[in-house]
Amino acid sequence: MDSRLRGNDDYADDELRRPTPVQLTRRTLLASTAALLAAPAFADAPGEVAPTIRRLSPKLDRIIRPGAKVEIIATDIKWAEGPIWVREGGYLLFSDPPANIMRRWSAKDGVSVFMTPSGTAGLDPKLVREAGSNGLAIDHQGRLLIANSGGGSIDRVDLKTRKRTTLVAQYDGKRLNSCNDMTVSKSGAIYFTDPPYGFTTGDASPLKQAKQNGVYRFVEGQGVTLVDGSLTRPNGIALTPDEKRLFVSNSDVQDKRIVYYDLGPDGLPTGPAKLFLDANSMTGPGNPDGMKIAADGTMFCSSPGGMWILSPTGEKLGLIEDGAPIANCCFGDDGTTLYMASNTRVLRLKLGINGWAA
């Protein structure tokens, strides 16, 4: 789930997405401190350029009401990723993979460090460039699920005891690469993606054991199944509300697209992937990355330019732009707020729909 400075794009494209030294200097000068800053509830961080909403269809007015503003709630993050709202407690968790930190945000307390290391400690930085957590999810028992980029695993954490369990770290006897993003079905099955973004040299890494960069399905007690091994850079992943389709982003700079699979009663594809969005001609920062699908079928998906709002049929309704890649998003609060991990900061936006309830 990344598409910028860290690499959720192809490695050859990293320098195209990495902020230039001038931009980094400007950002540093504008920041009031070198530490992570939290903005007050729905208040722009001082000195930051405000994100914007581009309306491409009047149909967007139902989803994002006219006059709605995107707010900045956290800044000075190395690479913001994997936001998830924890309903029991009312707070947001998000990852910073290169820093190996997971952070917590709430309107009451602002930003704090929630977990460090968030992924795996003690890894060789010459081999692993993102040792931390990436995508996050909450299972049906309220436990935190972590796509551990550094450890190449899907982990589970009891939020009350902080006990951590590795659920899956291998497929067919070979270690996974650097698990990136996931989605949980109503039955509890975990679908996840496993590109090589955590490795400093990608597919050429001596740590890479699996031939494929896979999309997988894991069921506790039953093991892990390969859903698709043909995508070069599988990244963001989401199920439709009826769970009849699974969407996956491919963030390869040479093959930028979002595909979907029709699923059978067993939760596995009934045929090959089908094209949903061809992003190769799209312009702007970022590649196809994280996505969430609202209860009414509206899709919020990272693609070149920012966070796109699409109809269930793929019609482009609007675009949230932040001048940088927006890696992922989630619904939060009562379901009517969209939280977005955008490069070095976290954004939120009040919606006109409820992502959790149609």
Walk me through what this model shows.
The chain is mostly beta strands and 358 residues long. The protein has one domain: Neuraminidase. It is built from three helices and 28 strands. It has helices spanning 14-17, 21-30, 60-63; strands spanning 37-38, 52-55, 70-75, 81-86, 91-96, 101-106, 110-115, 133-138, 144-148, 153-157, 164-168, 170-171, 174-175, 182-184, 190-194, 214-219, 223-228, 234-239, 245-252, 255-262, 274-278, 291-293, 299-303, 306-310, 316-321, 326-332, 337-342, 345-350. A five-stranded antiparallel sheet has the order 1-3-28-27-26, with no helix packed on it. A five-stranded antiparallel sheet has the order 2-25-24-23-22, with no helix packed on it. The chain starts with 13 loop residues before the first helix and ends in an 8-residue tail after the last strand. Residues 1-46 have low confidence and may be disordered.
